[in-house]
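Run log, item B.
One chain of 479 residues. Sequence copied directly from the ordering sheet:
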Amino acid sequence: MNSGLVSTITQPRQPHVVVYPFPFQSHVNTMLRLAELLCLAGLRITFVISEYNHTRLARNADTHPRLSASYGKDFVYKVVQDGIDGDATRTEETIRTVHSKYRDDVRSLFQELNEALPVTCIVADGYMTFSIDTAEELGIPLIVFRLIGPRCFWVYYNIPRMIEAGELPIMGEDGMERLVQSVPGMEGIVRGRDLPSFCRVTDISDPALQTIITQTIQTPRAQALVFNTFEKLDASVLAHVQKHCHKIYTVGPLHKHLESRLTRISSERGQVPFNSFWHVDRSCLDWLDKQPPRSVIYVSFGSVTMMTREQLMEFWHGLANSRERFLWVIRPESVAGYEQGSEPVELKRAIEERGYMVGWAPQEEVLEHNAVGAFLTHNGWNSTLESIAAGVPMLCWPYFADQQLNSRVVSEEWKIGLDMKDVCDREVVQRMVQDLMVDWKEEFLKSSREMAIAAKEAVSEGGSSWESLDSLIEDIKSM
């Protein structure tokens, strides 16, 4: 018999993984990194991306040509519509629109992809577990990737318990300050005020809250659950989640994990680029090069947060009055009623003397810079993990979704920052910036550096996240 024919027949088919993110920058960016890690392991990837996001990435980052050059046909995009018109702001109000659009189209999408090239498994965003039904009908294994942290997932999972116990809806200021007792393992930490923003409703039939409940309780039906975290950071709550979702992979922090794997292949490829939807102004790195070590507070509220001009002015006065150096990202069109150049004279003077402002920054590089001593953040999960991995303490001003919970855990459980939620006052900003940058600086830096060491160990060869990703890859191959 022809030996070449035998080789062809017995060679296993290359696994084909469809990666299916919710179309927000933080979701797309993180799932692109997981997709690249899978591709590095020899899996073929089809990455589902909205036309809007595909265009923005092409305009503002080298993501498309870099992935094409590195992986060729093993990494391809499937471009779809997300149901939002043009440049409409991607905020909480748009979530249900996107959700409805994707739910309607998921059957035809999965069928088309499976017919073009049989799909080994689907890695779906945890906010789209409605896709489990279609995957089951088509006989395709589906893995859920939650882009929030395990603690937030666990709180979401226990919302029915909180409703049954009368802890939701939150009733008045007393309810905001009362400790929540219906989330096993988190008693004594979380107040009503610290619950995710979706829980701040007066009516438990609220559509956003019900969507969160519905999508979260479907998770155990998936083949497995993936988190962008590491064991040491979230071990206590992962033990509770494990009772309901038996196969869990902790593979983060993903940006450092990808860097670690790329460096192992070639030291020249170790730097992980940022997949940005906005133009990245790298001039801020030159400015940071001229600042003393740990002297700058980096200010950025992420890719979704919106604020009023009044809130902007409170932060600005607080930063100016603190007398600390600052690097501030003000995302285009993120402040209602604000025009650049309209600032009071004293604030302009503060920028000239000790500040720098950009529309968007290479955040991971900024946080790793020796001049940065703290991070004033909205506490999105990606930003929180990036700050942890860089060993930078946080001043937390959460906006929505999981951010309220993250800020509480940062300050009260991990002890690597201060929580300023629900407050926007220049005197409070000034005081907390000085606490973080002067009065308690060494204490916060010490605890943050210890956490950064643990994160680095997790994504190094033999670490918990490294081994968890290896297990995920082998499980996908066995499908």
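Observations after the first pass:
- The domain at 12-273+458-478 is CATH 3.40.50.2000 (Rossmann fold).
- Residues 95-116 form the longest helix (22 residues).
Flagged for discussion on Thursday.
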